[in-house]
Amino acid sequence: MKFALLIFAAGLALVEPHGYVHTPLSRTSIFRRPNEFPGAQQPFWWDDTGVWCGNVQQNQQYSTCGRCGDAPGNTHANQGGRYDKGIITGTYNAGQAITVTVEFTANHRGGFMFELCPQVSENNNCFQRLNINSADRGVRDNNWACSGGDHQNGLTRAVVQLPAGVRCTRCTLRWTYRTSYPPAPDACWQPNNTQTFRNCVDIRIN
Ligand SMILES: *[C@@H]1O[C@H](CO)[C@@H](O)[C@H](O)[C@H]1NC(C)=O
Question: What are the Chitin-binding type-4 domain coordinates in residue numbering (predicted)?
Fold first, then answer.
């Protein structure tokens, strides 16, 4: 019986998903800090660390991934979707270099980027990639942060550059984590279709 439980627990660990944006807190993870941000709810269809394009491996254009990480064709995590409570989780200044913290619960190598939709009304085409000034586990091309090694879990930081002159009462910061799963020789970058995660975060820029 104990053995069976252990196997069950190991199985859970394997399917335990993989990460979320911790600070500022992602739209689908707001329920984690009810004292700070009351009124949110836990996603019903997956764990909030598994907002992963419905586990459909994505190409370099993320062709079928939902705007904010939904399974293909779904819109729950989008602005106006069921997890959008209009809660702003970070307030910054235009042109600021902001520290964004991501928590990995099951790191699958690869790397991640940040984009900003610099307008109040989010859509599929408004996202612009941001520069990353530095990151705990390394940066490529000034805009791609390496996620670290397999099972290198926990919090990791990236310093992300907000554009000068862009202000909004609400705009969307998007994290896209392109794993290296299936694994590629390059631990930071899998060019083939690969398991991908996405989170949207509602921020304000003064
Ligand atoms: C990409 O996929 C092809 C075909 O499956 C495979 O031969 C190749 O090794 C893969 N490349 C990487 C970097 O994983």
Answer: 18-203
From the CA of 148, how far away is ligand 1's center (Å)? 21
CA dist 69 and 75 (Å) reads 9
Write down all domains in the chain, each with its CATH number in brackets: 17-205 (2.70.50.50)
Per residue in 76-134, pLDDT (tens digit) is 999 999 889 899 999 999 999 999 999 999 888 999 999 999 999 999 999 999 999 99
User: What is the atom index within ligand 1 of the atom nearest the CA of 192?
Assistant: 1
Query: pTM for the complete prediction?
Result: 0.91
